[in-house]
Give the backbone structure.
Amino acid sequence: MEHLDAIRSSFSHQAGGYDAFSAAVDKERHLRQTVEALPLSPDDRALEVASGTGIFARSLAPRIREAVCLDATPAMLERARGEAARRGIANLRTVEGLAEALPFEDESFDIVISRLALHHFPEISRPFAEMVRVLRPGGRLVVIDMEAAEPALRQTQDGIERRRDPSHVQNRSRREILALYRQHGLEVVRMETTGIPVPLHDWLRLTDTDAATGGTIAAQMEAELSGGEPTGFDPFRRDGALWFWQRWMFFLGLRR
């Protein structure tokens, strides 16, 4: 419950700026390419779990029968409804609920999506099992999340993430996510990792990170650029500003 409160607090604050941050050119292109990679039918029903403002669901909605956004943070769902209305999307529905106990019948959806959410869960096997439960046979399960740094840097990487956003738990490795698909008998038909460049200033501003914490994080990345200890973020400079790389994993699995 304490961690759920941390998630709601963090994402209530982020709701207003979340879409603008996620609309950065590389993220927008990644989203478009991901949607285009999915086999879709006009009769499909899709569920985005821990949806935030429903960025993925809104992209799918014009191509399918219904898109459902489930999230534990009311402010995020309010933003999802507002953006859907602004864009004239009439087939998007929002539901407040928990990923660990999805309020849907078995085999209710053709597509289930988790995008940039699993790293907020202390334990991911239950949310994953719930997503499989509500997926119909032949349905598609999509997981997109940040890939963990190499083992020696995981603790450092996650520590920086938690200082910036206390609702962050840990990034998982490709092997860990793949093991969940196999454990539940899903056939993985596509698996890839894409580098996403992120401006440090905007990343810190999204969570309203205080100046002292932001300065400490920036100093760690600056030190790495000068040959110091690695952070797991692979920082670089672009037009004089400090940026870093995230590695986004994409998994597409079929439930047989």
In short: The radius of gyration is 18 Å. The mean pLDDT is 92.
